[in-house]
Amino acid sequence: MTMKPTRRYLLGLLPAGLLAACTTAEQEAILGAVLSGTGTTGGTSGVTSAEAAQGIRAALEQGILSAIAQVGRNDGYFRDGRIHIPLPSRLASIQSQLRPLGLSGLLDDLELQINRGAEVAAPQAKSIFLDAIRSLSISDAIGIVNGGPTSATDYFERRTTPALTSLFTPVMESALQRAGAIQTFDNLVASLRNVPLAPQLGADAKNDLIEHGVGKGLDGLFYYIGQEEAAIRSNPAKRTSEILKRVFG
Asked: How many CB atoms lie within 10 A of CB 193?
């Protein structure tokens, strides 16, 4: 018995250069043909190219909003061992040296507050992600369908990280300021000066702390976006709208 080619197989037959050379209308036709049930084994019969693109955007939006809700809440980072933000390595080293002596309180507070900063900052990313979804091209959508279980997440990480870093940095700094982390850090620096043989922190340590919080905060956000994307692809129960069910089978 001859096996029908899958949609991913059909897309894989298209050389990248040829696909890029296609007009938008031709790309829409390709996407529509692959996802409409033509030569596929999926249950997407009757899906038009416009509906397919809509379904992909809906899947991405659902995954992103779910991920933001997961991390952008109290203890979203701090109590989650998969995305918990530790202190930067130099501070973590000092923390481990002082903890047995019962002197790590300021550093423990700082670790909590940097996680709180990420929890406050994460929801601010929503508009950047939604703008990126709205600008998703047909060729981008084909690449996402043809990719692995987190190809959309990888696409958005490449596309949005510079803007997210610019957004997160002042939000993280403000959140740390409100949470008392900056004052805690200043108190820590002053305290270490009075501890014999204690390592001292350089002038850039505060900026390094903020950059570390931003980077780890984004890592945690993209981790959960990837988890949501993989679930939507593999778990029918995660396809909560009619268009998602039609596009992803």
From this structure: 10
Distance CA 216, CA 54 (A): 31
Identify whether the C-beta of residue 138 lies closer than 8 Å to the C-beta of residue 53: yes
CA distance 199 to 203: 13
Please say whether the beta carbons of 60 and 239 come within 8 A: no
Closest CA to 245 of 68, 51, 63, 9: 51
Burial of 198 (0-12, 13-18, 19+ CB in 10 A): middle
What is the pTM assigned to this prediction?
Answer: 0.73
Q: What contacts 75, CB < 8 A, 6 or more positions away?
A: 119
- Which of these, 125, 75, 131, lies nearest to 225 by C-alpha position? 125
DSSP code at position 167: H
| pLDDT recorded at residue 147 | 74
Are the C-beta atoms of 52 and 31 separated by less than 8 Å? yes
Residues 131, 218: Cα–Cα separation, whole Å: 17
Task: Please write the tens of the pLDDT for every residue from 9-41.
Answer: 334 433 443 344 444 454 445 445 444 444 333
Q: Which two tokens stand for residue 127?
A: 């508009």
Sequence letter at residue 123: P
* CA dihedral for 19, 24, 30, 31, sign (positive or negative): positive
- A 10 A CB-CB count for 39 gives 13
Q: Which of 245, 82, 64, 65 has the alpha carbon at shortest distance from 159?
A: 64
**Token reading at 126:** 């929503």
pLDDT in tens, 122-163: 998 899 988 988 888 777 877 777 777 888 889 889 989 999
